[in-house]
Amino acid sequence: MLPLDAIKTTLDALPIAAALVSGEGRLIFANGMWVSAEQKYKDDGLMSVVGEAWPNEGLYDQRLYQNLSREIGYIFDGSRDKINQKAELDHRGYSYNLNIDLTPLPSGSTTLCLVCIRLDMNAYSSPDQPSALRPDNYLILNSLREGVVIQDAKGVITANNPASEIILGLSADQMRGLTNADPQWGTIWEDGTPCPAENHPSSLAISTGKPVLDFTMGVHHSSGNISWLKINSQPIFAEGSQTPYMSITSFVDITEERRRQQMFKAVSERLQLALDAGDIGIWEYNISSRQLSWDDTMYKIFDTTPEDFNGSVDDALSFIHPEDSTDIRDKLTRSIETQCGFTTEFKILTRSKELRYVYVAAKVLLNNQAKPDTIISINRNITAERSITEEIKKSREKLKQFIERMPVGAISIEDKAITLNNYAEVITGYKKEEIADIDDLFRKLKDVNGQRCNQLQDLMSTGTFGKCTVLNIRRKDDEMRWIEFNGCKLEDGQAWVMKDITDQVSAEAKLKHLAFYDSLTQLPNRAAIEDRLHESIGRAERNGHTLGLLVLDLDLFKNVNDTYGHPIGDQLLVVVAERLKNNIRIGDMMGRIGGDEFMVVVENPKDEASLLDKCQALIAEISKKVELSNNVVLSTGICIGASIFPNHGKDAVTLFKNSDTALYKAKALGRNKAQIYKPSFTVALKTRLTMEQRIDKAFANEEFSLHYQPIVDCATNEIVSAEALIRWHDEELGYISPADFIPIAEETGKIIEIGDWVTHESCKQLAQWKSSGLDLSCLSVNLSPKQFSDEALFRSIQSALNTWGIDPKQLALEITEGILMNNRSLTKNLLLNLKALGVRLAIDDFGTGYSSLAYLKYFDVDILKIDRSFIKDIDREPSDFQITSAIISIAKTFNLKVVAEGVENIEQLDLLNDVNCNLYQGFFKSPALPSHKFKQLFTP
User: Fold this and answer.
1) Average pLDDT over residues 267-280
2) Overall pTM > 0.70
3) Alpha carbon distance 90, 368 (integer Å)
4) Which domains does the chain have, with CATH numbers?
5) Residue 210 and which of 254, 470, 567, 589 are 20 to 30 A apart at CA?
6) Please, which residues have CB within 8 angstroms of residue 476's CB and are 6 or more apart in sequence?
7) pLDDT at res. 134
């Protein structure tokens, strides 16, 4: 057995509290860990000092005291060879697990009791140890749960206890003879780098002759994992020697403790980050010492420093606003008395006289005797939140006032209760006090039949939110109004916005009529009849029927206008429309497709002969004499071109084209002629081919030029922009009208090349004018339907703008008749791209049937150009003026600029000013001019 001095040296190397108790129950030795723990847990009576009795009569748990007193007696009377006692200790609000080992230890002729006390037993838990003694009879080593190895002066392991085998995963046979330099240890520092053998604790203890304490090191366990050990190594000297002859090294496995510490550190860091991010301060009040301790954030919240705070309650209360300090003192007192925490808010006045609001939440912690020991509290500066709350309160009041004064009706519903704003009273005709609840609203608002408005009840009962619903509602005064409802779900009910759109519905009805009906004849316009033609083709295809398409054109109608004036021409068109209407069958459809052209869709004609007979009957009826105003008697002629589905085409475009070709053939034959399309009609195509060749030649010979017609501000009569118009002077044929070559260019695709040239030439001219001091706000160029089918259109326009450095908003693109009618989605995408580029978009010749008002809501345009046919007689014909006025009014609702075309006199201009028309162009200011003459218009 080891001598007593060696036993004490060994115990001093242990990382746990260990002591020796004599048979008289007195403590005769305590290691360093025991002495430290005795000071820390003095109030709990867990340890004693050397010379005093153990167990301590002042032990915190009397039942544990009695058990230990009884069990230490078993040790000394030899009835038990080892005793383990487990218990729990609550210390300053924290809970610890205790593991107390009692082991008999022979020493000379007497027996001592080895007492080992561990805190937080989980950190040191290990399987039960073997109770048998090792052959080397080191009873004290075998009784410990800490691993112990004994090494000679060369570092060779000569002995070990069973706990070391478990911790290191090696048997005694495997361990004996190993040194610190053996590579299987794989020892590492805490940072993961290798730890050399000479730096091992036992090596240092032997080499320095001094104990090495609390050394942390990682070793490779036989399982392949890294085990982390807390190590103490003590050098052992022979009597009278200054050189150690061996070392005793004890160690515990702290792998799990280290893992928990790292986890706790990570959690603590995250918690501190949360506290810092939330600007949360913590204070702790020790009830017995009556002292407060603050963290750094508390000083920040209270705008003070540790030097200016002495830690007393009175000092802390001095920072608190006098209105709140008494209440806080009372709450502290009551929390101690009741052992209950509290939450509250209080004000503080900082050194800079800033008023702050602080939220506090406090909790009372109890000691082992279940008495209040500490109050811990979190504090947060909520000044900004209070300010926001006040702002929200003010905002809510402003919102309430805003809702009350909104120019739309607002209804809020909570259960059956209903609240109306002022404009809701105007819309419904009922005062707030007249509507008792939501059911009363349903009863009082009637439908068109004067009955309870079930549609409104269904709308609000089913909660159809997120989309507008329009209902025709009878007000209190029996007036029917169109009301738009749009609702949303609230946390505690519903909210509905009511908008009286009666005027808008009326305007849309008129707009729809204008969109699909010709304003002069009241016949369907081109858009409407083309829609019907598509439907008829589909129906005929499904039923196996035929379909006739007639295109009619009045003979010499231009002569009528030139001879008798446009009013007579308009009367003639109305008469023709009536005669057509009266001479088609039920189920057939007709319309005016523009100018003096009409279209008739004949359902299921028997054959070509019967369709030709129909054409002749219409010619006979229309060519009859007609008496018009001012005793004008006319006998007009008409030509008709016809095609038959499916013989002459299976789609609307082909049928119309072939009917149009037949019409050209008929007109070539003279007045009052009709022709059914035949493939042999090639004359027009040959003409087009010739014209196409001349167009190619015109480009080569630079025969094209641009003229510019001023666009003028109606109010100031000043030129603000212009329209670029192409002119062609052929070296053989002389001047060729755009009306003659543009349609052919459109048909052949040459219009794309012409259009690109016009765009680039226009941008070039804009740049030249600007460099010479003439800076127009905008220059308009015309785009044809064919150009919109060209994928390169966008790039061409972009190239022209970039090449000549033109601001996109200075270029306006005028859209011709076919663009908005065909392929709406493709057209819209291209227009959106052009708008994104920055150019302006204009609808040309508006109102003639070439363009439809219905597309104004679909396409994002900037400018509306009213066709000259509406302008020419506005000073003589009230109906033309009313139509023009209506178009301008509608355009204003879409925020469009309006340009009146064909203004020829001051009377027309005055009328346009009366209805707030923006711009005009026409001979009253100037015809289209070459660039140099156009520039002269700006010279005084």
Assistant:
1) 62
2) no
3) 6
4) 1-125 (3.30.450.20), 145-251 (3.30.450.20), 278-386 (3.30.450.20), 406-500 (3.30.450.20), 508-681 (3.30.70.270), 707-936 (3.20.20.450)
5) 254
6) 428, 429, 430, 444
7) 36
